[in-house]
Amino acid sequence: MLKPIRALLIANRGEIACRIIRTAKARGIRAVAVYSAADEDALHVKRADEAIFIGPPAPAQSYLDIEAIIAAAKKVGADAIHPGYGFLSERAAFAEACEKAGIAFVGPPASAIAAMGDKAEARRRMSAAGVPCAPGYDGADQSPARFRTEADKIGYPVMVKAAAGGGGRGMRVVQGPEELEDALAGARKEAESAFGDGRLLLEKLVVGARHVEIQVLADAHGNAVHLGERDCSLQRRRQKVIEEAPSPVVGPETRAAMGAAAVEAARAVGYRNAGTVEFLFEPSTQSFYFLEMNTRLQVEHPVTELVTGLDLVALQLDIAEGCPLPFGQEDVRLDGWAIEARLYAEDPAKGFLPQTGRLACFDLPSCDGGPTARREASSDSNAFLRVDAGVEAGDAVSPHYDPLIAKLVAHGRTRDEARLRLAAALDDAVILGVTTNAPFLAGLLRDEAFAKGEADVGYIERALDRLAPAPAPVSALDIALAAATLADWRLDDPLAGWNSRGPTAFPLKLQHGDEIIEARAIIDGPRVTGFLGDGQASVEALAIEDGRIRYRVDGAVRCARFAREGARLHLKGAGPARTFADMTHAPAGAQAGGGNEVRAPMAGVVASVLVKPGDAVKKGQTLIAVEAMKMEHRLAAPRDGVVETLSASVGDQVAIRAVLARLAPAQD
Predict the structure, then answer these.
(1) Pfam family of this protein, just one (predicted)?
(2) Which residues belong to the active site?
(3) What pLDDT digit, counting tens, does each position of 83-98 carry?
(4) What's the CATH number for 7-106?
(5) Across-strand partners of 288?
(6) Residue 143 confidence (pLDDT) above 80
């Protein structure tokens, strides 16, 4: 019996909440958002028909609070709850709570979530169903001695994995027996902290493997299909960065075999709704091994939507209403190529350190036509760029949640067409106020190994120094543009910058990160010259308005973007985006401290303190760890010395740039 959904509560935030809201509204369903105290003005709240407050910023007290979510759904009379991804999406207890409350859960049964959420149990079920699994050990004996014995049988290298884990947590690569004991201890500690379950398993590490996953759909009428594969091999810290469909290394016969195995995996646990079966894939032999099943919608689902023309969220809602799948396996067609890049507020040059702050400018190229717009594009039905964003200009990137702010997805007739279209879109993105990985992503898309389809899951880590170089230093051209946008002058005044002795230089003292820059500038009518060290550069300002400066330099006309927030200037010219703090008139000592201090790189919670006052430390030694945005950031000593003071204890909430420790000179 069909149960139409008239009101849908989205138990999530950010871009996935906005994505679900879009499809719900297109179907005439009332979209209800939930929000924490940190998200009162968030984009998903603005786009929903109604929004319900559910608690403080901490996820455990809001987006992970099952009782609060169910209460919100009851309050608005929601017929169904869509969990999105992350948060409660793979919690069997949440699916059970929805069922108990008489609210449809837009996802699989709780039993399927539980079966696939336990990696050890999942391996056993997949083996029984005939789904290929890598050699491994998932037994009840968790002693180090048993793991040593099993690792010797499997053969190194091996992967230690949390049995109840996901998202890359509780995982360690072990190259040889001498590394096993430390890897087991570290993975167990991380698993207990993240999942409350320290059980581990071993799997043979497939060297040079690709991460290939199959999208499946199953309804309540016994129908199940797959929608082809996605290649998600470009990863860092086991987190996906770029995904594509189809895979450049999977042949037609292997695609059919993997798809059939994925459907069998879903049937083996009584699956219903949308899910993804992930495999490790060995290109040279076309062999594949079951990795895990994600019992939810995936972050990268748009690439499948663009090559199939299907709206996966709409199909999820159909299945939740009790409808049978409207097509069979023979009806699924893959058209062209789609590639997605995950845009994060993070700094690749600083170890992908998550960034927080206000988005002074957030301007992405977009053709916002929804998940199937590629088939409706007017002039070129095989070319499309899609943006799924969870923020807009003026929004704050919070330290409480994952730093993913948007996804850019390009479709093309060929892989190269999609790849280059996406790289160009990332080049055109203007994001000021918060550092992002946009230049890093554009570089990856143009990288020779990725262009040839040769990048495996370890590629980014191996080539990181080349792929994420330190940004170019501030130049005299940056100084000239900064002066043009900081100075109070009229472009149409031919005497701008003049006095009785002609044009004169004025000093500029700018803070860029931890660097204090002493520079000079001259304004002579529309011409602005910046001096930095022995270098200088001149620009002719042609127009300055609406956060844009159009200028001529070396005979070429260019455009830079900028935003001013008090004494802070955000600037994006031909090079990387810069943020300057104008210290020209600041009192002495107002800038950040130097090499004696250890500061919090962002707001977060102190996870561990590894030293005490009086301890002698070496440069690079980890002193304190701060947890933020689901990651642990280790703070190292900037030089040799002695810990003079500590201002942090485990559990403390610390603000960005807060001084956590000070060093005194090393004692003789």
Answers:
(1) Biotin_carb_C
(2) 296
(3) 999 999 999 999 999 9
(4) 3.40.50.20
(5) 281
(6) yes
**CA separation (Å) from 46 to 156, 239, 360?**
52, 29, 19
Q: How far apart are CA 3 and CA 21, in angstroms?
A: 19
Phi-psi region of 529 (alpha: psi -120 to 50; beta: other; left: phi over 0): beta
pLDDT (0 to 100) of residue 490: 56
Phi and psi at residue 630, to the nearest 5°: 65, 15
Give CA–CA dist 159/138, Å, rounded.
12
Interacting residues of 491 by C-beta distance below 8 A, sequence separation 6+: 526, 541, 543, 544
Please count the other Cβ atoms lying within 10 Å of the Cβ belonging to residue 540. 15
| 377, pLDDT greater than 70 | no
b/e per residue 575-586 (b: at least 16 CB within 10 A): bebbbbbbbeee
**pLDDT computed for residue 80 by the predictor:** 98
Domain covering 597-664: architecture: Beta Barrel (2.40)
Task: Give me 548's structure tokens.
Answer: 């844009």
- Cβ contacts of residue 241 below 8 Å, gap of 6+? 234, 235, 341, 342, 437, 441, 444, 460
Separation in Å, CA 639 to CA 190, 524, 592, 643: 29, 45, 17, 11
Q: Give the right CATH number for 476-582 from 3.30.700.40, 3.40.50.2020, 3.40.50.300, 3.40.50.360.
A: 3.30.700.40
Name the CATH code of domain 210-467 (choices 2.60.40.1760, 3.30.470.20, 1.10.3720.10, 3.40.50.300). Answer: 3.30.470.20
Mean pLDDT of 151-161: 94
